[in-house]
């Protein structure tokens, strides 16, 4: 079967949904351009892969809209060689974007079939150097902590302060949503000693973060 993949579609996404909305970091734009989003969505959704919308990937999970992926990536202040903990692997699209930026990605997912699919998908795309873990992301990955960056792609009721103070380096940056299920806010969080300085990046709606200190699995 011929894939929908079209560089022109990706270029339109970059121009219309990212640059037009204020995403200007060249490295982030190039990373977004380099990752074939149609490989990360369900087969029946591939013709809409470059629309600026979230899509179901099964198991009650979604792939975030391109603008949100780009915004979270840009506000993470990425740089080659930095170690990033990603909580909520999902389809692996965000994982691939971070890896394309030369970051060392440690990604966690609580839905085993999604993690297995992502492992295979990224291997087929030639994306190496990602470490995968099946488990409760709210506990982080203490064996490899602290991390330079933390990105959480699911919403908790409030900022996971303990996780950030224990597993984010002093001076490190995290990007994550938090708040009520129908009124989440995306935050950039910068750790300064035992303080967490937050910047409001706007309203969002993510799937819920399930685990200790987050939502119950109902």
Overall description:
By secondary structure, the chain is of the alpha/beta class. It has a domain at 65-204: Rossmann fold (3-Layer(aba) Sandwich). Helices cover 27% and strands 28% of the residues. The chain has six helices and nine strands. It has helices at residues 7-18, 26-34, 66-75, 93-100, 112-124, 161-167; strands at 55-58, 61-63, 83-87, 104-109, 131-134, 147-152, 168-180, 183-192, 195-204. A seven-stranded mixed beta sheet has the order 5-4-3-6-7-8-9. β8 and β9 (195-204) form a beta hairpin. The longest helix is centred in the middle third of the chain and has 13 residues, at 112-124. The termini are far apart. The relative contact order is 0.13. The model is unreliable at 1-5 (pLDDT under 50).
Which labels suit this protein?
218 residues, alpha/beta, Rossmann fold, 28% strand, globular, disordered N terminus
| CATH homologous superfamily placement of one domain | Vaccinia Virus protein VP39
* Sheet with most strands: strand arrangement: 5-4-3-6-7-8-9
Helix content: 25-40%
Total count of helical runs of at least 4 residues: 6
Topology, number of strands: 9
